[in-house]
């Protein structure tokens, strides 16, 4: 039984990257975790997967946070109210903000592949109200709590 499970787990691990998925993230004025949120605010995807940012409510965008992207990644920034789809080919962690509501804590985190959170991400200077949400996301990404 145990051997069977391990074989099955190995099969799934190899099989998954073959099917690129597209995930949807809503940009909302109010969600389950309060006001000005990405929902969900944490995604674990595989290289090649895509994330579509949906303008559920107006006046939001999605942009990478400076210093919270893998080395060499140029970053992205959508226009306000724009619905964009971003492909994530490079493994690593991507901190995402809504530019107008960064100061109100509108952030999310995307983990691509099987990687450890770089410790320097916790040192990046972000607005005071974004800090507790980001720290919670870092902790859940590190497996300390569930998102
Ligand atoms: Cu916003």
Automatic annotation (TrEMBL):
Where is the protein localized?
Answer: Periplasm
Q: Does the keyword Metal-binding apply?
A: yes
Q: Which organism is it from?
A: Rhizobium daejeonense
The cofactor remark states: Binds 1 copper ion per subunit.
Xref: NCBIfam families: pseudoazurin
Give start-end of the signal peptide. Answer: 1-20
Gene Ontology MF: a single term: copper ion binding
* One cellular component (GO) term of this entry: periplasmic space
Q: What is this protein called?
A: Pseudoazurin
Q: Which Pfam families match?
A: Copper-bind (PF00127)
Record-listed Cu cation binding positions = 60, 98, 101, 106
- Necessary cofactors: Cu cation
Residue span(s) of domain Blue (type 1) copper: 26-112
Q: What is the lineage of its organism?
A: Bacteria, Pseudomonadati, Pseudomonadota, Alphaproteobacteria, Hyphomicrobiales
Q: Which UniProt keywords apply?
A: Copper, Electron transport, Metal-binding, Periplasm, Signal, Transport
């Amino acid at each position: 039984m145990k051997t069977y499970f391990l074989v099955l787990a190995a099969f799934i691990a190899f099989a998954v990257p073959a099917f690129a998925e597209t995930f949807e993230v809503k940009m909302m004025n109010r969600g389950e975790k309060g006001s000005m949120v990405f929902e969900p605010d944490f995604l674990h995807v595989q290289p090649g997967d895509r994330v579509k940012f949906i303008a559920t409510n107006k006046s939001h965008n999605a942009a990478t946070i400076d210093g919270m992207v893998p080395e060499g990644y140029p970053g992205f920034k959508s226009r306000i109210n724009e619905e964009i789809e971003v492909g994530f080919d490079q493994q690593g962690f991507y901190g995402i903000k809504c530019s107008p509501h960064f100061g109100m804590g509108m952030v999310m985190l995307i983990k691509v592949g099987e990687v450890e959170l770089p410790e320097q991400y916790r040192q990046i200077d972000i607005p005071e109200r974004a800090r507790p949400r980001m720290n919670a996301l870092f902790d859940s990404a590190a497996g300390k709590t569930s998102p």
